Structure to design on (151 residues):
């Protein structure tokens, strides 16, 4: 497996977990980063996830990752910035972390693979395309479910 293959695998992992979230959340691509032998993909949720719904989101993701055979490595139960870290059977690290303003970040890191060029993801974002924008804006999409109780 080379870095492009690993990036494609990371995209499939991200597609799968985001596909499990109902109602759907809008997300945008975060940065792709490469090391000497690894690649990382990120997706940033643009839907506001209220403090009262963060546990719901983490629960959906935790259950899906466990059903998928992922090993849960750590859970951060911080009220404001909870997170869950797991690993796939083939060694990819996956995480969901909640940041400022209830913004959720999904990230997948590959194990060490053969060095190669890495193209940007071809998966279209489920909301506005923020290609070339960094940093991404804070979450700005309201959901009757996920944003419930957010000010």
């Amino acid at each position: 497996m080379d870095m492009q293959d690993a990036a494609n695998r990371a995209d499939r992992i991200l597609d799968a977990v985001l596909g499990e979230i109902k109602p759907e959340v809008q997300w945008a691509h975060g940065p792709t980063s490469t090391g000497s032998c690894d690649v990382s993909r990120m997706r940033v949720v643009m839907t506001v996830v209220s403090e009262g719904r963060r546990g719901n989101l983490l629960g959906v993701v935790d259950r899906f990752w466990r059903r998928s055979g992922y090993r849960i490595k750590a859970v951060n139960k911080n009220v404001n910035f909870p997170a869950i870290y797991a690993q796939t059977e083939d060694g990819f690290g996956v995480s969901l972390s909640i940041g400022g303003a209830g913004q959720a970040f999904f990230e997948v890191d590959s194990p060490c693979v053969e060095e190669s060029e890495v193209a940007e993801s071809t998966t279209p974002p489920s909301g506005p395309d923020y290609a070339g924008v960094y940093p991404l804006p804070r979450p700005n999409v309201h959901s009757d479910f996920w944003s419930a109780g957010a000010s």
